[in-house]
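Hi V.,

You were right to ask for the full record rather than a summary. Here it is.
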Amino acid sequence: MNKLGWYTLLIAMCGDLLFSLLLSFGYKGYSNLTMSISALGNPNSPVRLTFNIWMVIEGVLFLIAIPFFIKAYQPVSRGLTITTVIFIACFAIGACIFTGFFSVNETKDVVTTASKIHGADSTIGFMLFLFVPLLAGLLCFKDQDKALGVICIICFIISLVFFVLFVMSDKPEFANTVISYEGLWQRLNLLFMYAPLAVIAVKKIISA
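Predicted structure:
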């Protein structure tokens, strides 16, 4: 049982990247380079139901992992730990669970109530989760794990760069340039946001 939360955390993060890649093969015309992950759940997507169900499951998996994170790091720093799990919870609910119920449209030209809710919640969730590697790094330094702390900080910086590129990707002035690769930047952003938590989870599983 001591390993359960860390396994669910790994499944949630790995599944987010791998499951979206697999589903993309069932969506003719979908591009992993230029289209966001959320587009897999748009009303015209043939994989919409599967994707939306997975997003809810992913969010729940993140939430299940939270008590295990608190148990592991609360003795190190209560304030940093609570802040970190709040950010993870906001991401799990806003960018995962709500995504399963409020879909974006195939193109951003079409705006609906659902897409507005999705956009607001997903943006807040992503922006908060962006700082999780930084907070995790500070926790690792306080826990005397300097090597992992450095890895977390480096991942934070790299993920921040990809997040900026992701935000810039849909700007008209960058159309038909490499910066317009929205899907690529989002996936790389997620990869480096997830990496520190993945390393922490593996270490906790091995040591449990």
